[in-house]
Amino acid sequence: MTLIQVESNDRTIGYHHNESQVKDRPFVSFVLLSLSIFLIIALLPLSLLFVVEIIKEYERAVVFRLGRLKKGGVEGPGVHVLIPCIDTLSKVDLRTITFDVPPQEILTSDSVTVSVDAVVYFRICNPIFAVTNVQDYRRSTQLLAATTLRNVLGGKSLSQLLSELDTISQILKSNLDTTTESWGVKVERVEIKDIRLPTQLQRAMAAEAEAMREARAKVIASEGEQKASRALRAASEIMVESPAALQLRYLQTLNTIAAEKTSTIIYPIPIDMFSAYIDFQEKDKVTNPKASSSTLPTLSSSTVATTVIASDGEPSSSS
């Protein structure tokens, strides 16, 4: 009897214990569910950063799923949902990119050392090639531009380098574009910014340019003198044919002299007044050369007799 009562009492105690655990289980489940919901709400914005990706209008996205290029290749602008730990995304900017080529010390074909600066404009035309075929398309294009610049300019002389900049730029663009095509890069323009020459060479070129300018000025001056001589010759021929024109020129000369502010006035005497005397002198030389040379003063057609009135008002003559 005693053994049966002990067993019944143990069963009663175990039953009451299991009943209390069943009563506590709904409370624990509620707490865990509430905590899970709270964590989901709290971590949702943070999880969206890893799940949702926004692509801008000037960008394209290359998506890889488990390391392989996703079907469709390139994703356009908009909102894209990624699977965490499965999808990876690489953005590519389609806008024109510019970079400066570092100054390059180049030895030209005529053994002149120059320093050349250039700038390159390029853009991405194939995002998949830009991501899969080259590790860093911008750095690779920059290094290739520096190498191409040295190779192309090294085969040119200094005079060609200074006078054929447009042609050299086109050659550089063509060479770069051919090589970068497999990288998905399109080279739009290559411009040479500056060419720096050695100081001594700059001085020599400046002296040469100055000498050329002086020679050109002398040529222009000589051409002007030739034209002036032709004009004077034509004017003299006209005056010979028309004595009235010579008289008008004489009056114009008097007017010009009178307009000058000077204390001495020179009145030129026309040589025509002495034409009779000159003819008589020439005839006398023919008939009696000894007497004419000793008694008569010589007067040629090139002599111009003038009357000078000094500042004190006394006239004097000069020949």
TrEMBL record:
Q: What InterPro entries does this protein's entry cite?
A: Band-7_stomatin-like, Band_7, Band_7/SPFH_dom_sf, Stomatin_HflK_fam
Q: Where in the cell is it found?
A: Membrane
**SUPFAM superfamilies referenced in this protein's UniProt entry, alphabetically:** Band 7/SPFH domain
Species of the source = Tetranychus urticae
Membrane-spanning intervals of the chain: 27-52
Q: Which GO terms describe its cellular component?
A: plasma membrane
Question: How is this protein named in the record?
Answer: Band 7 domain-containing protein
> Residues in domain Band?
50-209
Looking up Pfam families in the UniProt record yields: Band_7
